[in-house]
């Protein structure tokens, strides 16, 4: 439809409402004078693709928000609480093909169910569809991933005051997790989500480890996180390491990344990268705030025993004295052309509620103006015809004509109504797009 440049439009769909007999009796000369076929550019046509409204449980499905290695994440609307949510859709067939896939998902559900903190993403609901062999993890909705914000920022870094705001929340969330005996194991900007009110949420608990409540310390044995954020002890292949300190290292790399736009360790390939991390030699970028540099040096200490604890981070001057708010924050970037990241569920709901009216809505501004003009003319002719009926009580040819005209008029009125409903659909659509 969009490719067709010459879409013929009938600006007077009144013909639609007449049956064969009625058409035969019409004054064809008058009609042919008023019939116009407009040549319209496809860009001017307001074409609305039909959106099929789907529901999973009580959730109305919206568009895709992102995709991880386990499946798609879509926006949904909770039809009971009218709250925006995100749902991770996991297909059993796909999970089986991923090493430890099913176990990691079970892990994630288990952890998320037991955790509740404002800086940890909340799992709201878990739904299963046996027939489709699918699982739906309904989570609280976040508007952006910190990684996306960085990618949109000048030099891929945040102003210090903004980075500080997120870092403080990251430490709050991490302290809560460690207090629950949970080692996240994959802290990085790609796993930190932001809500509309700028709250940071730690997400992705696929490779998280839970310490045994009777374990004497925080020893862990599996290092499965993203290579660039792994500490030297994991890069060097140690059998066991401190889980808390591994998370502190990843948090340090995250702080380095969001404040400088770079990484402390790089490598042409994953082996070189791990080799460089294993050597533990890195330097603070020139011109970095000295207090921030000092905090980074202590969070990225090669020896995990010398690395800062969460409490030491909290006591550090940079943590305690937030940087001066200079300039603007980096704003949430648009998503698929949607600058405000407004709800993607709305078009599906519109489609569901206005479905019959929305069929074949291919109108241009010109058509809508003509429809309004036609409606005005009909109102005028209606009042003059009514006057004629009241003046003449006998059945004459003129009255027969008047009765016929009045029946046409009713049909035209129905057409007008149809047009007006289309106008409202068009305007609603327009509002949403702008
Ligand atoms: N709660 C949420 N609210 C909004 N968007 C989300 C939410 N959770 C995930 N997303 C979006 O879905 C994407 C995929 O998330 P998911 O957790 O499945 O994978 P990932 O962490 O990006 O990758 P992987 O699972 O491979 O490590 C995210 O990058 C993000 O864009």
From TrEMBL:
Biased composition (Polar residues): 377-408
UniProt keyword terms in alphabetical order: Apoptosis, ATP-binding, Cell cycle, Cytoplasm, DNA damage, Kinase, Magnesium, Manganese, Metal-binding, Nucleotide-binding, Nucleus, Phosphoprotein, Serine/threonine-protein kinase, Transferase
Substrates-to-products reaction catalysed: L-threonyl-[protein] + ATP = O-phospho-L-threonyl-[protein] + ADP + H(+); L-seryl-[protein] + ATP = O-phospho-L-seryl-[protein] + ADP + H(+)
Broadest EC class assigned to this enzyme: transferase
Region (Disordered) residue spans: 376-409
Cofactor annotation: Mg(2+); Mn(2+)
Listed GO biological process terms: apoptotic process; DNA damage response; establishment of cell polarity; glucose homeostasis; intracellular signal transduction; regulation of cell growth
Location of the protein in the cell: Cytoplasm; Nucleus
SUPFAM superfamilies documented for this protein: Protein kinase-like (PK-like)
This enzyme's EC code(s): 2.7.11.1
InterPro entries the UniProt entry points to: Kinase-like_dom_sf, LKB1_c, Prot_kinase_dom, Protein_kinase_ATP_BS, Ser/Thr_kinase_AS
Binding sites annotated in the UniProt record for ATP: 88
GO cellular component, one term: cytoplasm
Keyword Phosphoprotein applies: yes
Occurrences of domain Protein kinase (ranges): 59-319
CDD domains: STKc_LKB1
Stored Pfam families: Pkinase
Keyword Ribonucleoprotein found: no
UniProt-listed PROSITE patterns: PROTEIN_KINASE_ATP (PS00107), PROTEIN_KINASE_DOM (PS50011), PROTEIN_KINASE_ST (PS00108)
Gene3D superfamilies linked: Phosphorylase Kinase, domain 1, Transferase(Phosphotransferase) domain 1
Family, per entry: Belongs to the protein kinase superfamily. CAMK Ser/Thr protein kinase family. LKB1 subfamily.
Descriptive protein name: Serine/threonine-protein kinase STK11
Provenance organism: Polypedilum vanderplanki
Biological classification of the source: Eukaryota, Metazoa, Ecdysozoa, Arthropoda, Hexapoda
